[in-house]
Each structure stands twice: as C-alpha cells, then as structure tokens.
C-alpha cells in the first residue's frame, strides 16, 4: 500500500486493484481499505471512492473540518480527477465529451445504465493518448461522480474498457480487471489553501496489457483522426 502523501489533515493512497474501499457484500470480516488504513492511521473520513477493481489515487480526510472542505470541493467540481483507461477498438475521434444520463444499480448484475428519462446528469471528457491496432490508451476526466461512470460512458460510445466484462467487453487474457486507473487528483489543501496534485503511476498489470497490445509497434498516427 503506497502512501503518496500524509500530513495532519489528509492521507493520499495509491490503491491497488482488488481491494474495496468499504465492506464488499455480506462478508464484513473480509479486508477493505478503510479498515486496513485505520489500523495504522487512526480514524479516517471517506471523501470519494474507487471501484474495487480500480487502482490509483484516493484521498481521505483525517479530521471533520478537512472532510467537510474536501466534500465541498468534490461537490462543486473543484477537485480535478484524471483517469487512464484502455478502450477496446479504435475510436474515430481524438477527443470526446459524453453526457449520457446514468442510473445506477440496474438489474440483477447491479449495472449502471444510460437512462435518458430517469438518469442523473453525467459528464466525462475523453482524450486519446495513444493508439494501437486493437485498442487505445485514453485519458478520462469525470466531471460528475456517478457509479461506474467512466466505464459506462466508454461502453455507450461503443468502446468498453479492456477487460470490463460487466459492460460487455470481450473476454481477454491481457488483463484480469477493467483497465482503469486513477492517475491523478488535484485539490486545494483545506489547511494551507495550496493547490496540490497527487499522481500514481499505472500498475504493472495495466502496463503489461499495453505492451501486449503491441507497444509502440502498433502505434497509429492520431493526426489521421478528426476530433
């Protein structure tokens, strides 16, 4: 468990994939992130969450005042989040803003679904970072915080995330989870008022998937694609 930053007010972690932030399902004794961190750092307050399968930057507050301040930043979209993801297929755009309204916890699989009538307003901004013959490395900036937002918006665009079987991605041996990583988080420190950015490099399973997609050998010139 890599600690990216810790002071008297905030704790920033590079979360491994496979660990839920809170208890997952009925097994309350199974390990989860908050329980693990509180053994070492004492009481922590949850500001935002990452899916169990998602790796990367997550921040916690260490006191009530900091928790209140960070919550306000997230609610007012003053906290900037950048994710890296691998999309299946070849998007025919370099940049794309998606605003599909989303409704969570749909059906037996508890998926999030696009719902134009009852869904909540949602926005994700995608940008292609690198192209491969069978996929694309993209940057995703969620402007809202809906459950599975990036995963569903990618699926709705016709390019589900590599390994995201829940959202109809093809079976693959390249990665055993949805290829999604919380790469950076920018907040204003509640105590110092300093604007701070925290980053977590992509984990090995993510990098291995990129290598197996073809690495630089399969690069497709982005200039040939219109925005």
Description of the structure:
The protein has helices at 33-41, 64-75, 149-156, 204-213, and strands spanning 2-6, 10-15, 45-46, 55-61, 80-88, 95-98, 102-106, 111-114, 124-132, 135-142, 180-188, 195-199. With 227 residues, it is α+β, with helices and mostly antiparallel strands. The protein has a single domain (2-224), classed as Pseudouridine synthase (2-Layer Sandwich). A hairpin with a 6-residue loop joins β11 and β12. 34% of the residues are buried. Mean pLDDT is 91; it is low at 216-227.
CATH overall fold name: Pseudouridine synthase
Q: Helices and strands: which structural class?
A: alpha+beta
* Proportion in helices: 10-25%
Q: What top-tier CATH class fits best?
A: Alpha Beta
What is the oligomeric state here? single chain
Number of helices: 4
Portion in strands: 25-35%
| Cα distance spanning the termini | 39 Å
Rg on CA atoms, Å: 18 Å
Largest sheet: 10 strands, mixed
Total E-strand runs:
12
Please write the string of helix (H) and strand (E) elements. Answer: EEHEEHEEEEEEHEEH
So what's the overall shape?
globular
CATH superfamily: Pseudouridine synthase
Instruction: Give the rounded overall mean pLDDT.
Output: 91
How many structural domains does the protein architecture include? 1
Low-confidence stretches: 216-227
> In CATH terms, what is the architecture?
2-Layer Sandwich
What can be said about this structure in brief?
The chain is an alpha+beta fold. The protein has 4 helices and 12 strands, in the order ββαββαββββββαββα. The chain has helices at residues 33-41, 64-75, 149-156, 204-213, and strands spanning 2-6, 10-15, 45-46, 55-61, 80-88, 95-98, 102-106, 111-114, 124-132, 135-142, 180-188, 195-199.
């Amino acid at each position: 468990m890599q600690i990216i930053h810790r002071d008297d007010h905030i704790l920033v972690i590079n979360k491994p994939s496979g660990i839920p932030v809170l208890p997952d399902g009925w097994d309350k004794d199974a390990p989860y992130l908050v329980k693990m961190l509180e053994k070492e750092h004492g009481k922590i307050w949850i500001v935002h969450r990452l899916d169990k399968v998602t790796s990367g930057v997550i921040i916690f507050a260490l006191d009530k005042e900091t928790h209140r301040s960070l919550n306000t930043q997230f609610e007012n979209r003053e906290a900037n989040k950048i994710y890296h993801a691998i999309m299946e297929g070849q998007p025919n755009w370099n940049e794309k803003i998606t605003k599909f309204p989303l409704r969570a916890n749909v059906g037996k699989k508890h998926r999030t679904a696009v719902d134009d009538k009852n869904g909540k307003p949602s926005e994700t901004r995608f940008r292609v970072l690198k192209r491969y013959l069978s996929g694309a490395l993209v940057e995703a900036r969620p402007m809202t915080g809906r459950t599975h937002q990036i995963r569903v918006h990618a699926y709705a665009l016709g390019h589900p995330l590599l390994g995201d079987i829940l959202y109809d991605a093809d079976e693959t041996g390249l990665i055993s989870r949805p290829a999604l990583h919380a790469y950076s988080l920018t907040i204003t420190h509640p105590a110092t008022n300093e604007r701070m950015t925290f980053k977590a490099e992509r984990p090995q399973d993510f990098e291995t998937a990129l290598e197996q997609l073809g690495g630089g050998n399969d690069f497709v010139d982005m200039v040939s694609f219109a925005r």
